[in-house]
Design a protein that fits this description.
mainly alpha; two-stranded antiparallel sheet; about 65% helix; globular
């Protein structure tokens, strides 16, 4: 029981509980359009994908799941994106509970970099941003669907709310069978979704810093500087790469006018880093474009937010370490700040564990499925990084492959460090150190 009271152990259990509840609800007969129970693996996969805010699907969301089933999915990715412990703490505040030390610690673990005295204000910020952004985007999308596509008010409101919540939580679920391919020429629909995803992909610590200091970037924390400038650099890289590589592809950007090419290249520079919406056929991308997506998905978005991947800060910490080693510098850092040894070790640990898990899952699925290796690797990176993009092989995978993706999505959402710590037996530092001896590297 003591272990269960430790927030870092409790969080994975709460995510598992949410997945279990979602699986049960999606297994009910009236959760499907035909009134029959969904297969257990289908319900489990969908529930995990929703709670992990991934967006990978094995069945078509609007045609397979009933209104009740789609409502459950929406609730699951709202809860998953908001954070199980954050939701529990806010519910406790609403019920009049005191904001105790355990709640503060739990929230700090869930959001990584928050200090104890900042937890309550951060929770208020999270709630405020969630309500405002989801509400504004839902209104814009609803109005656009009514005015530009002739949908009835009720239907437009449903699609608007569904896509707004899905975008804000970086879930990538769509209530349209072709995701957002029907809107590839519409900046008034794709634009708000892109903006919502970018905001939340920065992470809530960055939002808290921006609220305190605005655009005075010299007063930003090192974390905020790396995340904001790193995000801008990755978005620009993805945009230029996808636009150049897919410009003449007849199955993607080729037939479009230059305006639509720019819009969709920009849209797809955002999606691989956190959300699984697509306005183009990902399965028709050139191999070099898929390679670019590998990189963008693996890096992901900002820490302590709804994005997945190893995170922007992790990547740029490693980049700075490599650069310092090449230049022969004793210390590594960015923006005139030096990184501590523990941060460097954490970045390396996260990256190695993530790459190892993806490699193992890819190898296993390749051995049982017979599907193309590049498609499998794309699927595994997408699952682990909770992106949700797919080349179209998800539903073709055998049961063992789907289980492997479920594990990837869960670990990718909860975090490799959190899972490893939750499974650890509470090891402590040894009271002694071995003599130092360095092997030959390289």
């Amino acid at each position: 029981m003591i272990a269960l009271r430790d927030p870092i152990r409790l969080i994975p259990l709460l995510f598992l509980a949410a997945i279990l509840v979602g699986t049960i609800l999606l297994s009910l007969p009236f959760a499907t359009t035909v009134g029959a129970r969904a297969p257990l693996l289908t319900a489990l996969f969908t529930s995990t994908s929703a709670v992990a805010v991934t967006g990978l699907i094995v069945v078509d969301t609007p045609t397979y799941w009933s209104g009740f089933g789609q409502g459950v999915i929406l609730l699951l990715f709202q809860v998953g994106g908001f954070g199980i412990m954050t939701s529990a703490t806010l519910l406790g505040l609403m019920a009049g509970r005191s904001f105790g030390l355990r709640d503060r610690m739990a929230t700090q673990v869930e959001r990584n970099r928050l200090e104890k005295h900042d937890a309550l204000s951060a929770l208020k910020l999270i709630l405020g941003i969630t309500v405002v952004v989801e509400g504004v985007v839902a209104i814009i999308l609803t109005a656009r669907l009514m005015g530009g596509y002739g949908e009835t008010p009720g239907l437009a409101l449903w699609h608007g709310v569904f896509h707004s919540v899905s975008a804000f939580n970086n879930a990538g679920f769509s209530s349209y069978s072709d995701s957002l391919m029907g809107f590839q020429d519409d900046p008034l629909f794709l634009g708000p979704i892109m903006i919502s995803i970018i905001i939340t992909a920065l992470g809530f610590p960055v939002m808290q810093d921006l609220r305190a200091h605005g655009i005075a970037w010299r007063r930003w924390s090192l974390h905020t500087k790396i995340t904001v400038w790193g995000t801008a650099a990755l978005l620009l890289f993805g945009f230029v790469a996808i636009l150049a590589m897919e410009w003449d592809n007849p199955a993607t950007l080729g037939p479009m006018g230059w305006g639509s090419k720019i819009l969709n290249a920009a849209f797809h520079s955002v999606m691989p880093r956190t959300a699984g919406f697509n306005s183009l056929d990902v399965g028709a991308f050139h191999d070099e474009t898929l390679m670019t997506n590998f990189f963008l998905m693996f890096v992901g978005g900002g820490s302590a937010g709804t994005a997945g991947g190893i995170k922007v800060t992790t990547f740029f910490v490693l980049f700075a370490i490599v650069l310092s080693e090449i230049l022969g510098r004793q210390d590594s850092g960015l923006f005139q700040r030096r990184f501590g040894r523990e941060i460097q070790r954490q970045a390396l640990t996260v990256t190695v564990l993530s790459a190892t898990l993806i490699f193992a899952a890819t190898t296993y699925i390749a051995s049982i499925s017979g599907l193309p290796l590049d498609d499998i690797l794309f699927e595994c990176i997408s699952a682990f990084s909770t992106v949700g993009l797919s080349t179209g092989i998800t539903a073709k995978l055998p049961a063992g492959g789907l289980v492997a993706l479920i594990i990837l999505m869960f670990v990718g959402r909860v975090g490799t460090i959190t899972v490893a710590t939750a499974l650890a037996l509470g090891g402590r530092d040894r009271p002694y150190r071995y003599p130092q001896e360095n092997p030959i590297v390289g």
